[in-house]
Amino acid sequence: MISIRFTQGVILYALGLLLTDFTLNVGVASMNTEPDSNLRCGQRNKRGAGNQFSGAQDGQAQFGEFPWMLAIMKNLPGKDLSYKCGGSLINPNVALTAAHCVTDNNTDIQYSVRAGLWDMDLLVEILPHEDREVKKIIVHPDFIPQALYNDIALLILKTPLTLAEHIRTVCLPPQDFPLDSSMGRAFVSGWGKTKFNNEILDSATILKKTDVPIVDKEKCEENLKKTRLGPNYRMHDSFICAGGEANKDACKGDGGSPLVLPVGEDNATYFQAGIVAWGIGCWEESHPGVYVNVGKFRNWIDEQMKNNNFDETTYQYQRKVELSN
């Protein structure tokens, strides 16, 4: 059986992609000025944020390494907040996640996002996390829950998050940006089911990261035909694939989490190519993870931002350009 990747459900998982260079509309910083890095999208903290914490173990992210990473939390009346899915920040007022994470039939569920989180078990971290309630959920109109086609949603927050070293937006690719295996490896992060010292844990308390290769659609489809999906399986155009290596994968609980790729010559900026959606098992060789193709939905995202009067430049890749006299 195929399962959807969120904290309540069976074992279906998803992955995303990586990219080394692409053409975007480029914003130009004024000469001899460097924009505040907190205001530029896709700025990864490779060594961590705050006090340059370096205590993360193998498979764990540094504190603040992926500052766009969000925990989507659910709240039922009379109960504490609990983790549901991953997500990403594209604007101080807007989160991006998988539609299957926020289309629960229980109308009593209220959602919020937690930004700047690293360890689920710590009340106090190097820099404080921020919680914001969700005011509005925008699910793609063509989302098909039974097949997870067009599995994408935007969460509009009641009040904006405060951008900081450990809370930043991720860049988004242009509409229909082509992805293939030549683009190398991507990072997927999340708090889902994990392996630690060969022990399988139901969830990760510390944010984990995994590097995975992009898989061409044709190869991915052929590999998935050899699974219980059968020889007639056809991959929908809203999906992309990554992974297929032993012990490198997203898993249950990682649904909605971002798959990011480096941008530009120095690979210092990242854009979100995928959203964890589903997969066949976890950590299995030749079973790539399946992700939402974010590039397919860039125009839709832009349209929703305009309709809600939000700034689209918060996820627009910018590079500094030095002008000669």
Automatic annotation (TrEMBL):
Gene Ontology molecular function, alphabetical: serine-type endopeptidase activity
Domain Peptidase S1: 53-306
Principal place of residence: secreted
Keyword Disulfide bond included in the entry's annotation: yes
Record-linked InterPro entries: Peptidase_S1_PA, Peptidase_S1_PA_chymotrypsin, Peptidase_S1A, Ser/Thr_Proteases_Immune/Dev, Trypsin_dom, TRYPSIN_HIS
Subcellular location(s) of the protein: Secreted
Keywords: Disulfide bond, Secreted, Signal
Keyword Disulfide bond carried by entry: yes
PROSITE patterns the record matches: TRYPSIN_DOM, TRYPSIN_HIS
GO biological process, alphabetically ordered: proteolysis
GO (cellular component) term, any one: extracellular region
Domain of life, per lineage: Eukaryota
Signal peptide range: 1-30
Stated family: Belongs to the peptidase S1 family. CLIP subfamily.
Protein name from the UniProt record: Phenoloxidase-activating factor 2
Native organism: Diabrotica balteata (Banded cucumber beetle)
